[in-house]
Amino acid sequence: MILVTGGAGFIGANFVLDWLASQGEAVVNLDKLTYAGNLHNLDSLRSDARHVFVQGDIGDRALLDRLLAEHRPRAIVNFAAESHVDRSIHGPEDFIQTNVVGTFRLLEAARQYWQALPATEKGAFRFLHVSTDEVYGTLAPTDPAFTEDHRVEPNSPYSASKAASDHLVRAWHHTYGLPVLTTNCSNNYGPLHFPEKLIPLMIVNALAGKSLPIYGDGMQIRDWLYVRDHCSAIRRVLEAGRLGETYNIGGWNEKPNIEIVNTVCALLDELRPRADGQSYATQITYVTDRPGHDRRYAIDARKIERELGWKPAETFDTGIRKTVQWYLDNPEWVQQVQTGAYRDWVAKQYAGA
Ligand code: NAD
Ligand code: TYD
User: Fold this and answer.
1) Nearest CA owner, ligand 2 atom 6
2) pLDDT tens-digit readout, 184-233
3) Which of 158, 189, 297, 327 is catalytic?
């Protein structure tokens, strides 16, 4: 079996669902269930004995030791993290605790467990660390996309904490020989995405008749990848990635934020037209920019394609249509994640917007 951390969050839950459907191998899922963790994401696995859910913290060494001894996983896939840039600006402490200290504790537990494994199991063991393109910093409009050799230059508390965790993973390989793999992926979108991030926030706000807040001039560029393509890339790296290597994952889909929001509005106009016949785009409002806002991210995904033969299955057009349709089909999921804590966040972040 494998140990997945953060498997009740957006990407982790998609990964666990796809893993069990495609590989069938059992999963121990360790998740703290912060505001971003949602057990309803895993409802379809309730009576599936191959999925063992454990609520807990990757920083809890005693718990990690117990889980590793009890379940003896052949791999660890580390998704657990604080993941929202705007939250990291308001309160960076949790990002340091989970992304840096938590990853450190997980690496130490993995190292002790791995060192005591019999030779064949030891040789097959993998620690896959899931990271982000944001560690590379920002690009000017004509700069080439980030390769794995791009300098690490994080600009937000979130990306700095992820870069720190990437460094720890690298050092645990270099110093102790721990068989690690690191993936740095671009912005994901798709089902189960918490509506504090751009795409789900815009869908949810549009349908609720609320404003669609664009930071600054809306010309910041992100490189978008459908979440299930990210999951297939992680499976492939776990299967065949070279130890100690980093793989950038992306879909060659650079788009300015305003274009993303206009696309979402056009799909909603088609699939769920407003009663007054107006476009959802009339709800767009420009608000104060994010401090230190990175202007452009772009992933050069040639290494993973060349070495591992991975390519995304979705184009942006097919992926965004599926995503908007999923939110239209799952209003109860949206309602359920919009708890009191979510409402407090929205009030704080968009006060006066
Ligand atoms: P998310 O915020 O939706 O989910 C994070 C999950 O981790 C939640 O279920 C949360 O409960 C859990 N968690 C948080 N702290 C924990 C702790 N201390 N111990 C155990 N569990 C804890 O995040 P996501 O968007 O699914 O991102 C998953 C991973 O992928 C993160 O490491 C993130 O940096 C990385 N990533 C995300 C994107 C993206 O676009 N969302 C892109 C590239 C990489
Ligand atoms: P986000 O989904 O938070 O991802 P990240 O900051 O990790 O790339 O934001 C994506 C882009 O959308 C980013 O440039 C910030 C912008 N954005 C808005 O313009 N308005 C919003 O309300 C949000 C949440 C994001």
Assistant:
1) 85
2) 999 999 999 999 999 999 999 999 999 999 999 999 999 999 999 999 99
3) 158
Catalytic, 86? Answer no
Domains by residue range for the chain, with CATH: 2-189+227-250+293-312 (3.40.50.720)
**Are residues 129 and 182 in contact, defined by beta-carbon separation less than 8 angstroms?**
yes
Residues with CB under 6 A from ligand 2: 85, 187, 197-198, 201, 213-215, 220, 222, 257, 290
The pair of structure tokens assigned to 82 is: 């604080």
Q: Whose CA is nearest to atom 19 of ligand 1?
A: 57
Q: What is the pLDDT of residue 353?
A: 64
Beta carbons of 146 and 297 less than 8 angstroms apart: yes
Atom of ligand 2 nearest to the CA of 197: 2
* CA gap 131, 135 in Å, rounded: 8
Question: Cβ atoms within 10 A of the Cβ of 124, count?
Answer: 11
Helices 257-271 and 316-329: crossing angle in degrees, nearest 10, is 50
Q: Two tokens at 90?
A: 């308001």
> What is the pTM assigned to this prediction?
0.97
Task: Extract the tokens encoding 294.
Answer: 């990175």
Predicted confidence band at 349 (pLDDT cuts at 50, 70, 90)? confident
Q: How far apart, in whole angstroms, are the C-alpha atoms of residue 225 and residue 227? A: 6
Question: Mind listing the pLDDT tens digit for each residue in 35-50?
Answer: 999 999 999 999 999 9
- Residue 204 token pair: 């949810």
